[in-house]
Design brief:
Number of domains of chain A: 1
Number of helices of chain A: 9
CATH architecture of chain A: Orthogonal Bundle
Shape of chain A: elongated
CATH class of chain A: Mainly Alpha
CATH superfamily of chain A: MetI-like
Structural class of chain A: mainly alpha
Oligomer: heterodimer
Helix content of chain B: over 70%
Distance between the termini of chain B: 9 Å
Structural class of chain B: mainly alpha
Low-confidence stretches of chain B: none
Largest sheet of chain B: none
Radius of gyration of chain A: 22 Å
Radius of gyration of chain B: 24 Å
Mean pLDDT of chain A: 81
Largest interface: A-B, 38 and 42 residues
Distance between the termini of chain A: 13 Å
Low-confidence stretches of chain A: none
Chain lengths: ~270, ~325
């Protein structure tokens, strides 16, 4: 059982490494992702590995660009969510109550909103596009990060090394930065990995609905939407973005779960 | 008496959540760029008309007053007017679209609970043997395959290849209505069903290891009765709580499903309104969807004490 789990984690990690290479080099390696390079709706060939789309653009380059967008949006959102979440948790745990109280109330309140509903509201009123998607998803992502960090901070509060550091006269900011946060990076990394799957899924959902990443920039979600229109005659245009999106979500959750079990055995 | 008090406190919590959601949707419109009066009057309107409209709409009042008015109007079903076409009242749009979304969510939540609990129990009882392995594989797929990937896939199989189910909802429907619900509800229910399956399995395995089960086995309780009456009754409690938290997935999914199958519901209306920059409709749709989410959670919270006498007694 244990060995099998490791194998899945390694497979997931390997896939993600390849995806990263694809995202960096793929969009312009053979053909530009925005260029009309050939006849529309061509099948796969040695020249156009995944064929071409309705406008004669290279599907391989577009799928690769979709990987870049997904990873870019996902990682930006996780970075913002980590920064805001950690700040909110530290404020909630250590700041005087007149500021800690409202911050924690706000964090709890955010849970009343179903995750993607708030993102759709923000995008609906402030505009569509890649940047609004990042902002909207970051705003919905930070509360769960804040809650996680706060629980972790609270559980470390009475450990000997914390008491010892305090006895030596460590200030709160020194204690948090030098002693507490270094304890958390491993679990936070693993959780971010699992959350990344959710963020990428949310981004492609919004793009599928037409309110996320906007044309002509390709995203897996919008490629699935346009592939759907021609799925009777050219099902491969639907197939490739679906395959990559599903595999990526799959790989991220396996890799993230594996990482969490490895770094924090008691939570598994 | 105690049950009544618990009921009141749950309702109060639901009201607070609802107030929070209404405040956020209100705040979002205040912060959003663009002047509602200008949008409603049109570009060609004279400044005097716009000023009069601003006054009539109360846009020149301070925001706390506007929020209270917004709340008061909303309780009367008045959400303002759409910016488009005949400037139809948003309340009327919601009244037309809400039944479809509510129906889809209800079917999906019932379907997901029934199948999730059934398969989860089977998996838990046959732990590590082939039925368990097969169910685990399917539930992993159900959690990871996005609904807008599953949607086209099902349409491809059941409409294009087998031609057994209709492609999408339409005003004119030659087949019986339930045929049009099969694919949307399946897609909507898939992810919650998969999550509930995993949860039921874990909960079942844990319950089966407890002492009272061993006592029941020793007493000679028949196997079926042991599983359903003794084990499942206990194992099901955390699952019921999870049904409420999974309602969020349903609402997200309804945006996707209504788009794929062109169904007249709140989800598709929201997306249409966003694409047209029709802010009052966006705001009201989000508010009503959030309201639906809270109501589902409230219902689940109220079911729990009915199932578990321990909660009934501890609720003071």
């Amino acid at each position: 059982m244990r060995r099998g789990r490791d194998r899945w984690m390694i497979l997931g990690g390997l896939y993600l490494a390849l995806l990263l290479i694809l995202a960096i080099f793929g969009p312009s390696a053979r053909h530009g992702y925005l260029d009309q390079v050939a006849e529309p709706n061509l099948p796969s060939s040695a020249q156009y590995w995944f064929g071409t789309d309705q406008l004669g653009r290279d599907m391989f380059a577009r799928v690769a660009y979709g990987a870049r967008i997904s990873l870019f949006v996902g990682l930006s959102v996780q970075l913002i969510s980590l920064t805001v979440g950690i700040s909110a948790a530290v404020i909630g745990e250590y700041a005087p109550s007149w500021i800690a109280g409202p911050v924690m109330r706000l964090t709890d309140g955010m849970f009343a909103f179903p995750d993607i509903l708030l993102a759709i509201l923000i995008i609906g009123l402030f505009g569509r596009g890649t940047l609004p998607v990042i902002v909207a998803l970051a705003i919905t992502a930070w509360p769960s990060m804040a809650r996680l960090v706060k629980t972790q901070l609270a559980s470390l509060k009475d450990r000997e090394f914390v008491i010892a550091a305090k006895a030596c006269g460590a200030s709160t900011s020194y204690l948090v930065v030098k002693h507490l946060l270094p304890q958390l990076w491993a679990i936070l990394l693993a959780v971010s990995m699992v959350e990344l799957a959710g963020t990428i899924l949310a981004e492609s959902t919004l793009s599928f609905l037409g309110i996320g990443v906007q044309a002509p920039e390709p995203s897996w979600g919008s490629m699935i939407e346009s592939g759907r229109e021609v799925m009777n005659s050219y099902p491969t245009q639907l197939f490739w973005p679906c395959l990559f999106l599903s595999t990526t979500i799959f790989a991220l959750s396996f890799f993230g779960d594996g990482l969490r079990n490895l770094l924090d055995p008691k939570s598994g | 008496m105690q049950v009544a008090r618990a009921l009141v406190s749950r309702l109060a919590l639901g009201m607070v959540s609802l107030l929070f959601i209404s405040f956020v949707t209100f705040l979002a419109t205040i912060l959003a760029p663009g002047d509602p009066a200008l949008r409603l009057a049109g570009d060609k309107a004279s400044p005097e008309v716009v000023t009069r409209l601003r006054h009539e709409m109360g846009l020149d009042r301070p925001w706390p007053e506007r929020y209270l008015k917004y709340l008061g109007d909303a309780t009367h079903g008045d959400f303002g007017k759409s910016y488009y076409g005949t400037q139809e009242p948003v309340g009327a749009i919601l009244g037309r679209e809400l039944p479809m979304t509510a129906r889809l969510s209800c079917y999906a939540i019932v379907g997901a609970s029934v199948f999730g609990i059934l398969f989860g129990t089977i998996a838990g009882v046959t732990r590590d043997r082939w039925p368990d392995r097969a169910i685990l594989l399917f539930s992993t797929l159900g959690v990871t395959v996005p609904n807008f990937v599953l949607g086209p896939l099902l349409v491809w199989i059941f409409y294009l290849k087998l031609n057994q189910l209709p492609e999408s909802w339409s005003p004119f429907r030659p087949l019986p209505d339930y045929m049009y619900y099969i694919m949307p509800v399946t897609i909507l229910a898939m992810r919650p069903a998969a999550l509930l399956t995993r949860l039921t399995r874990a909960s079942m395995i844990e319950t089966l290891q407890q002492e009272f089960i061993r006592a029941a086995v020793a007493k000679g309780v028949p196997r079926f009765r042991l599983i359903v009456v003794h084990a499942l009754r206990n194992a099901i409690l955390p699952v019921v709580t999870a049904i409420g938290t999974n309602a969020g997935y349903l609402l997200t999914g309804s945006f996707v499903v209504e788009t794929i199958f062109i169904m007249p519901g709140v989800g598709r209306e929201t997306i249409d309104a966003i694409l047209k920059n029709d802010s009052p409709v966006v705001q009201a749709c989000i508010l009503i969807t959030g309201f639906l989410f809270i109501v589902i959670n409230l219902v689940v919270d109220l079911i729990l004490p009915v199932l578990d006498p321990r909660i009934r007694e501890s609720q003071v």
